[in-house]
Amino acid sequence: MGEEMKRTVWGLVLAVILAAFLLLWFRSRQDSRELVEDVFFAEEQKAESVTIEIKESYGEEVVFTASMEDFIDCFNRLFEMDMGCAYFPPPLKWKSTHDDRGIHAQYPTMQFFFSEDERVYSLPTVTVYTPMDEHSIQEITVNFDEHSYTEVGYERFKQLCQYTLQVFLPGLSREAVSGLCDEMIALGNEHVFGSDAWYGSGAVPSDLFYKETVGIYPYFAIGDWQRLCVIPVTEEILNAFEQKGVELHEIP
Predict the structure, then answer these.
(1) What are the CA-CA distances from residue 219 to residues 133, 177, 203, 204, 205 (Å)?
(2) pLDDT one digit per residue (tens) for the chain, 252 residues
(3) Cα dist from 193 to 152, 166, 189, 198, whole Å
(4) Rg (CA), the chain
(5) Cβ contact 208:241 at 8 Å
(6) Whole-angstrom Cα distance, residue 92 to residue 102?
(7) Is the Cα dihedral 193, 197, 200, 201 positive or negative?
(8) What residues contact 161, with CB distance under 8 A and at least 6 apart?
(9) Distance of alpha carbon 65 from alpha carbon 137, whole angstroms
(10) The whole model's pTM is what?
(11) Other CB atoms within 10 Å distance of the CB of residue 153
(12) Are 191 and 161 in contact (CB under 8 A)?
């Protein structure tokens, strides 16, 4: 074989080796990119919901397994993806108090309150109810002072309601969540309770929407704040509400 032929053969061999190397490099890059995309998607999915399961507290009271910290973290991730910043501070920076009974609980309850600016009464607030000895969520309410109505405050109220429902109803689209919020707020305005039925222990709403273990209802009484409430539910709890005249709506 002549020298020129040898050089040609070696050139072809090197070209094949180089092509194989480039192919392996490209596939490695593609696999890495897909891995990064999978991780990002997993984080995004994690941001969209908390674990919506329930458990017993004090031996018989029903609460969500998700903690107040879980709710804050998930809400903030969703809010930050849209708005570029977190909304809620850590639980230690929320104001708190306690009552002898919860809204739907027979036992002492902690209440944690947050307002982005307590000096502005037209802004909505959020309340998280938990058992005294743990941060498992017993109830969450988004609250709006209708008597200090401003368009800005009302739009923020609807926004907080929507993000809260996104946390607890991760299978629903944003459009479905928005429509559900509008429907419940409208129902709350249609079925206003008297001034002797302010929101408190034993409150019974006119309507309750539910999906699996999540119950949601509006509550608005004359002289009180307008509220959208999220609670854990079981078949027994739903039946008890129905027996009290509450109209149940299953969320598809």
Answers:
(1) 27, 18, 9, 9, 6
(2) 555 555 555 555 555 555 555 555 545 444 434 433 333 333 444 445 677 899 888 767 899 999 999 999 999 999 999 999 999 999 999 999 999 999 998 889 999 999 999 999 999 999 999 999 899 999 999 999 988 999 999 999 999 999 999 999 999 999 999 999 999 999 999 999 999 999 999 999 999 999 999 999 999 999 999 999 999 999 999 999 999 999 999 999
(3) 25, 27, 9, 8
(4) 27
(5) yes
(6) 21
(7) negative
(8) 142, 181, 185, 228
(9) 7
(10) 0.80
(11) 17
(12) no
Which residue type does 192 have? V
Q: Output the six-digit token pair for 46.
A: 């994690």
Query: Residue 240 corresponds to which tokens in the numbers above?
Result: 């008890």
**What one-character-per-residue DSSP string does 122-155 give?**
TS-EEEEEEETT--B-SEEEEEE-GGG--HHHHH
Angle between the N-to-C axes of helices 151-168 and 174-190, in degrees from 0 to 180, rounded to the nearest 10: 120
Residue 252 structure tokens: 């598809």
- Structure token digits, residue 2: 């002549």
CA separation for the pair 219, 191 (Å, rounded): 8
